[in-house]
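Protein modeling request. Please complete all fields; requests missing the sequence field cannot be processed.
Requester role: graduate student
Desired output: 3D structure, token encoding
Chains: 1
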Amino acid sequence: MNRKQNKDLATLLSDVAAATDLREGEEGVRAILSVVGRAGALSLRDLARRVRMPVPVVAAVRRELEKRGLLDRRGGLALSGKGLDLVDVEMDAAPGCRCPACDGEGFVIPEAFSPLLYRLREMAADRPAVDVTLDQSHAAPETALRRALYLRESEALDRDLLVLGDDDLTSLAVGLLRRQLHLKGRLAVAEIDPRLVACLRRVSDAEGFDIEVHPHDLRAPLPGPLIGTFDAFLTDPPYTLEGLRLFVSRGGSALRPGVGRQAFICFGHRSPDEQREVVRTISDAGLGIVEMRPAFNRYDGAQLLAGVSAMIRAVTTSHTVPPEDPYNGPLYTADKNSRQ
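Delivered output (340 residues):
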């Protein structure tokens, strides 16, 4: 790429980032162009998942790039001739490094556990419809089973586990996997949605999973039987930072005292500034992040999350933080929007 092309590209990136108010800035536009160039053609949803930006945000960038004649829709999004001239992208000049087995997620479901996935799909077919006021967005059954397998890989599957909010049916995946592997351990869920409480209880009773399902609004501190009695917690909190802060705090209060208790936190990808706050929020709760797996969780819908979220594994440290008092502020996305 010559000096003029470099200047033209820099101007383009700056203009599109400004026109879309892109929080990822010029580098976000560059990432979108590069991913499209290397892939050849992508659907909007797949592009959003690859760059880990909300679908509406990627759609806005796409429109700006189309106005400038850089993108075509040929069996999906693709660089136009003008785009190819401007953007220096290796078009399949070298083999890609993205894992073909796991599509870059770094985690696969072994064939031995396929029967569990079929059963989990049957269970998921009967779960209640999403309640968007609670920031629900159903994770795919594959994701629920991946979570259970990840617990196993992290030596947490047979420990006492609390799930905070479970419209994804993770507790059922844990029950299925424990039964197949002949593992025991306390398994509890705290869930605000009465429809899910009934659904989880019904399936647990029918399958003999012995899941404790506690109807509970996490704005209030956990009930006594759930405090300080677990080895690990898993949560997929509301989309907001306030939701993350509260759910992680409640999860921390459920753990037994001591260093090394595990927290499994599923949270959507954010802009660089917001991602900094995500890490700070988890750290401020007295947890040390051990591992982050991007795009580990996949959802039906969830355009604000690009249909994916990260799996964050953290552990308790010697810097314990007291649990929060009752919380009365905005928690879910709808709460925050109504106050703006």
